[in-house]
Amino acid sequence: MPAAYPLPSDLSPVTVANTASLLRIIALALISGAAIASRLFAVINFESIIHEFDPWFNYRATKVLASQGFYEFWNWFDPTAWYPLGRVVGGTIYPGLMATSGVIYNLLHALNLPVDIRNVCVLLAPGFSALTAWATYMFTKEMKDESAGLLAAAFIGIVPGYISRSVAGSYDNEAIAIFLLMFTFFAWIKALKQGSAFWGTITAVFYFYMVAAWGGYAFITNMIPLHALVLLLMGRFTGRLYVAYSSWYAIGTLSSMQVPFVGFQPVRTSEHMAALGVFGLLQIVAFGQLVRAHVSSKQFQELLLAAVISLGLIGFFGIVGLTYKGWIAPWTGRFYSLWDTGYAKKYIPIIASVSEHQPTAWPSFFMDLHFLIFLFPAGVVMCFRTLRDEHIFVIIYAVVASYFAGVMVRLMLTLTPVVCVSAAVALSSLMDTYLDPTEPSVEDDKSESSNTPSTGTSASRPATPATSKKTKKNKEKEKEKEASASAGSVLSELVSNVTSSAVAAKSATTAERGVFGMDTRLVVLLNSLGLLLFFVVHCTWVTSNAYSSPSVVLSSTSSDGGKNLIDDFREAYHWLRQNTAEDAVVMSWWDYGYQIAGMADRPTLVDNNTWNNTHIATVGKAMSSPEDIAYPILRKHDVSYVLIIFGGLIGYSGDDINKFLWMVRIAQGVWPDEIQEPNYFNRGEYRVDSEASPAMRDSLMYKMSYYRFAELFGGQQPVDRVRGQHVPVQGPTLDYLEEAYTTENWIVRIYEVKKDDVLGRDLKIANAFNQGKKRKRTKPMSRRKAIGA
Amino acid sequence: MRLLSSALVTLLTLTTFSFASSSSVLVVLDPSLDRENYSIFFGGLEKRGYNLTFRAPKDTSPAITDYGVSNYDHVILFAPDTKSYAKDITPQSLVGLLSENTNLLIALSPKQTPLTSLAAEFSLILPPPETPLISHHPARSEPQTTIPVTVSSSSPILTPGIPPVWFTGAPHALGSTPMLVPILRAPAESFAADSTSDDDSDALVTASEKGGEGLWAGSQMGLVTGFQTNVNSRVVFAGGVKMFSDEYATKELPSGGPPGNALFATDVAAWVFQEKLKLRIDAVDHRRVGESEVPKMYTTNDEIVYTAHISAYDSETSTWKPYSGIDDLQLEFTMLDPHIRTSLPPVPGSPGAYQVQFRAPDRHGVFKFVLNWKRKGYSYLESSTTVPVVPPRHDQYPRFLSAAWPYYAGAISTSAGFFLFAALWLAGDVKGERKKGSKVE
Question: Is the ipTM of this complex over 0.90?
Answer without folding.
Answer: no
